[in-house]
Amino acid sequence: MLFVNSEEAWFWFVRAQRARHDGAVMLEAATEDTRPCDPDDIYRMVMELHRKRVLHAHHLKTLARYGWRQCPPDRRVRGEHRDLVLWDEALDRLTTVMNAKGLIYREEDHAEAC
Fold this sequence. Notes:
This protein is an all-alpha fold. It has one domain (about 5-25, about 35-114). It contains five helices and no strands. α1 (about 5-20) crosses α2, α1 packs across α3 (about 55-70) and α3 (about 55-70) crosses α4 (about 80-100). It is globular. The chain starts with 5 loop residues before the first helix and ends with a helix. The model has no long low-confidence stretch (mean pLDDT about 90).
C-alpha cells in the first residue's frame, strides 16, 4: 500500500523504529497493508538528503521530535511556529525523493490507468 504522503511515511518509520527498540522483529508478510518499502529505506532517504546538505541538523531534530510524538507541529502553538517551517521543509524534500521512487500515492497516476 503506497503512502498518502511523506508525513504518513515518516510516522510509520518512527513507529517501526520504536517497535524494533522494544524488541519487535520485522517480518515480511504480504498483506494488503504491506508498504512499498522497508523502514530502513525511509532512513536511508533522509540520511542521503542530509549527506547532500538538503536536510540539515535542525530538520533532523524536528523530524525526530515530532515523529516521536506522532504528531506534527501545531500552527496554533506559538512556540512551534519555527518547528512547523522546518517540518514542512523536511517533508517537502522527502516527498520529492519518495515521489521519484513511486512510494507516494498520486491521483494522476491512477486516473490514467482507468
